[in-house]
Specification:
about 300 residues, alpha+beta, elongated
Length: about 300
């Protein structure tokens, strides 16, 4: 008599095999998901850290005096959502050999419309860096008398707006980080307090007016604290499609989309200390200076 498997034994073996295959498939899917999340997190961290290093290097060369300044406005862009800051400052990181040692920097977050592989539009928030090299004594003849730097024009008021009027051809623009969900700047003063204050209904720091519009003026902050938060590309694309629909900021779909972008994000912090800050503060606070007059329009 020949031995053989019964139908029940075959079915039991198949059931065990199916269970093993399902278990292995689940393990494989979980491993793939973990790998994908790890790669996404590594990409987010790398993007944010690279952008932070660039910003810190530029900010450490910040110069503020009678002719040069720094301006930070909180929640200048995307006011109904993330509220990104707008930053203008002048640094001495230019080419010293070409007699144009100063660089005009503008950091801000731009809202751009992109399309995915299927052609569907979505909103993306990109951290932008604008840079222009110049000589502080330049009379601005190349661009007309209305585009002179603020210290050389007696009728100049909001100096950072003068820079925004310069032709785009003189600016070097680049994207430092995409899928940004937070970009905040905090100006810490030499007295240990925050120098961001309200002025004309705007939360800002303007070195030409001093902290909170008070003395001392024309000095850089003791520290330039930066908070940058970047979301993953997949999450930013999925949530950005909801933001591109044009729904109100308080719509549940929009609120959930923004919450998802924040949840799937990485944060980096940095502190820049302007190299000439201490000497400049000591000159203004102890010895006094003959400062240029500034006016509010």
């Amino acid at each position: 008599m020949k031995s053989a498997f019964t139908l029940i034994e075959v079915l039991a073996s198949m059931a065990v095999l199916v269970i093993l295959v399902l278990a292995l498939t689940r393990m494989f899917m979980e491993a793939t998901s973990i790998t994908k999340r790890g790669s996404s997190s590594l990409m987010r961290n790398s993007t944010a850290e690279t952008a932070m290093e660039t910003l810190l290097q530029d900010a450490e060369g910040m110069v503020v005096n009678d002719r040069l300044a720094c301006y930070v406005q909180a929640n200048a862009t995307d006011p109904n959502g993330f509220g990104f800051d707008d930053v203008w400052f002048i640094s001495t990181s230019g080419d010293q050999d070409d007699d144009i040692p100063y660089e005009y920097f503008h950091y801000f977050v731009a809202t751009n419309v992109w399309t995915n592989a299927l052609g569907a539009p979505y909103l993306r928030f990109d951290l932008m860096k604008e840079r222009m090299i110049f000589a502080v004594g330049d009379a601005g003849n190349s661009y007309g008398t209305d585009l002179q730097f603020y210290a050389l024009a007696t009728n100049t008021v909001k100096w950072w707006q003068k820079g925004s009027n310069f032709p785009s051809t003189v600016w070097d623009r680049q994207v430092l980080a995409d899928n940004v969900v937070r970009f905040d700047i905090y100006c810490t003063g030499w007295d240990g307090t925050g120098w961001m204050g309200g002025f004309s209904g705007v939360h800002e720091f303007d070195s030409t007016r001093g902290p909170n519009g008070k003395s001392p003026t024309n000095v850089p902050p003791a520290a330039f604290d930066i908070y940058l938060q970047v979301s993953s590309p997949d999450t930013a694309m999925e949530s950005g499609m909801a933001l591109a629909a044009g729904l109100p900021a308080n719509d549940p779909v929009v609120v959930k989309a923004r919450e998802m972008m924040v949840r799937e994000s990485s944060s980096v912090f940095g502190r820049a200390v302007p190299l000439v800050g201490a000497a400049r503060y000591n000159t203004v606070a102890v010895y006094g200076t003959n400062n240029t007059a500034y006016y509010e329009d």
